[in-house]
């Protein structure tokens, strides 16, 4: 009994063999094209996945690189700030020193001014005292000469006689 689904083998003619061979070739070509399409699609998918992973990895590398650069820049900025802070402190100390020196010079100048003013006022007081003394001497000389002239005038007026003692002499303000 023959098995189901199987045909008995009958020899094929050359045309049939050629057709069968062509069909096999076409099927193989179809399979090769299908394999090629599958392989091409697989490679395209793999390329897209690699490009995606490459972009992600590049992003990660850039992020890490930026972090490293930030740390380096932060260290540089901290050093710059420290240097600038020290420079600023040095400049402030220098200016404080100049201010103290100027304040000391000002204090000395005020002391010199006060001393010069006291000396000037003392000299002015001396000159005023000298002038008063001179004026007193001139006034005394004036009074002596005035008395002498007054006596001489009275002598000439009364002709050599002195005025009576009961008559008051003329007041000096009238002369």
Total strands: the figure is: 0
- Which residue ranges are poorly predicted, with pLDDT under 50 across at least 5 consecutive positions? 165-175
Approximate strand percentage: under 5%
Helix/strand order: H
Number of helices: 1
Mean pLDDT: 87
| Helix content, binned percent | over 70%
Tell me the major beta sheet. none
| Backbone CA Rg | 68 Å
Task: Output the structural class.
Answer: mainly alpha
Which word captures the global form? rod-shaped
For the terminal residues, how far apart are their CA atoms? 196 Å
Question: Can you give keywords for this protein?
Answer:
175 residues, coiled coil, disordered C terminus, cilium, rod-shaped
Descriptive overview:
Helices cover 82% and strands 0% of the residues. The protein contains one helix and no strands. The longest helix has 144 residues, at 14-157. The model is unreliable at 165-175 (pLDDT under 50). The radius of gyration is 68 Å and the shape is rod-shaped. The protein is mainly alpha-helical and 175 residues long.
């Amino acid at each position: 009994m023959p098995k189901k689904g199987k045909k008995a083998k009958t020899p094929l003619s050359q045309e049939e063999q050629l057709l069968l061979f062509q069909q096999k070739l076409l099927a193989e070509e179809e399979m090769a094209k299908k394999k090629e399409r599958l392989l091409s699609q697989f490679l395209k998918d793999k390329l897209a996945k690699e490009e995606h992973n490459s972009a992600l990895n590049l992003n990660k590398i850039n992020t890490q690189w930026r972090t490293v650069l930030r740390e380096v820049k932060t260290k540089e900025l901290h050093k710059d700030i420290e240097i600038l802070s020290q420079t600023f402190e040095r400049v402030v100390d220098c200016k404080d020193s100049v201010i103290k020196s100027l304040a000391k010079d000002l204090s000395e100048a005020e002391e010199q001014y006060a001393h010069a003013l006291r000396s000037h006022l003392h000299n002015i007081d001396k000159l005023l005292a000298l002038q008063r003394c001179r004026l007193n001497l001139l006034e005394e000389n004036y009074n002596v000469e005035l008395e002498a002239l007054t006596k001489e005038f009275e002598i000439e007026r009364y002709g050599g006689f002195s005025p009576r003692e009961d008559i008051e002499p003329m007041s000096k303000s009238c002369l």
